[in-house]
Amino acid sequence: MSAAEHTSGGANEHTETSIREILEKQRADYLRKGPPSAEVRIEMIDRAIGLLVDHKQEIVDALSADFGHRSHHQTELTDVYGSIEPLKHAKKNVRRWMRGERRSVQFPLGLFGASARVEYQPLGVVGVISPWNFPVNLTFSPLAGIFAAGNRVMIKPSEFTPASSELMAAMFRKAFDETDVAVIMGGPETGSAFTKQPFDHLLFTGATSIGRHVMRAAAENLVPVTLELGGKSPVIIGQGADMKKTTDRIMAGKMMNAGQICLAPDYVMVPESDQDSFVQSATDSVQNMYATLKFNPDYTSVINQRHFDRLSGYIDDAKSKGAEIVEINPANEDFTQQPTHKIPPTLVLNPTDDMTVMQDEIFGPVMPVKTYKQLDEAVDYINARPRPLGLYFFGDDGEQRDRVLSRTTSGGVTVNDVVMHVSMEDLPFGGVGPSGMGSYHGRDGFKTFSHAKAIFSQAKMDLGAMLRPPYGEKFEKFIGGRIKRTG
């Protein structure tokens, strides 16, 4: 086990009892004070934004330490700026989101003054389990919806990024009382204890395999869950797509965070006649972005030795089973001796389904490339597998695009790029089936972390008298006029 895999809590790890005590304190404080005003919610969002701005350099340094090396500019983009934007979006819109919604009532009740509405009420205490790949972003960005909805929050950050987790714990202690925000430090045992708590909602971001355990534990207390998981997000390159534009965007997405992104393009499906063109163009795209890789500050390391060995094993397995391996290494550097765990982007051509690279979510800079003769072959291949978190189509042919989008199901889609739909705050973000459950971001996040309370106000006139016993002729006329096929 590498240093990055050790738990960060040590003797200070929380127990199941201590976690429950914090939860009860938060819930009691919420019940005592009641739903917070829009001003209080905005002030909490502002405090979160302030932490990110004031601690930008510390966040950059902590993430680089956790990864061995992580691109400083990427951290500023994804974990600092990428966390601030959702919070600002929520701050701008929270007053509008908080407004109740009028709903219609059955005729003729509305004529006599009956009304119906939906009010959005805070759930109470939300639990958040954040992962190691974007530890700051996937801790702070959910706070946009959680704070906008008026909730308290308890956070269990990853033990695989101890420097980042310790930093966030210190940041939150600086700006928030524990009855508003609490960070629960520790390893797998602490994580297991965390999932057993009777939260009002639980958000988990991580692997599908762990998501099953989280959901099972939450079910003991009937805690509703939002699961942001992953899977093998495919890319379909349509006939006639602009190959340079396509590979520039695919490889930029694949190499960001060294492919350690739940939405990273996992495999590419390219027309059979375009495979050679794709390989050459992908190679050119990488060379244009990264003249070197081994000591390039813009290229991130794989998180630890275990994941480095896992990814290397995928490549070795594919090679032993007959796949062609294309390592894109612009400066022909030797990666056998290095201070971190960098892997050059690697294409696996003509992979077969018995290869582990086609069975597991890759989560690294390794890209299988499959070919198809007809578009329906690619669609059928995707539909024969678990529904992915993301799907990507490249091409300007509207008929091809619409066929892919209408015939496949995925959590979300980006057309003519990869990953980008997650950054659109007004779009819901979530998976489907094995890639996740529920969604958040923007207004959808506010609704996820709120209780939509239905409120019906009856008219002053006693219109329901005929619906109560003793039933008679008026009732029979009323009900008889409504049990029919039309109207």
Structure characterization notes:
It is a single chain. The chain is an alpha/beta fold and 487 residues long. It has 2 domains: 3-229 and 439-450, Aldehyde Dehydrogenase, Chain A, domain 1; 234-425, Aldehyde Dehydrogenase, Chain A, domain 2 (3-Layer(aba) Sandwich). 41% of the residues lie in helices and 16% in strands. The protein is built from 15 helices and 18 strands. A 7-stranded mixed sheet has the order 10-11-12-9-8-13-14, with helices on both faces. A 6-stranded mixed sheet has the order 5-4-3-6-7-16, sandwiched between helices. Strand 6 (201-205), helix 8 (208-219) and strand 7 form a beta-alpha-beta unit. Helix 2 packs antiparallel against helix 5 and helix 9 (243-255) crosses helix 10. The longest helix is centred in the first third of the chain and has 27 residues, at 72-98.
Question: Which tags fit this structure?
Answer:
single chain, 487 residues, alpha/beta, Aldehyde Dehydrogenase, Chain A, domain 1, 15 helices, 18 strands, disordered N terminus
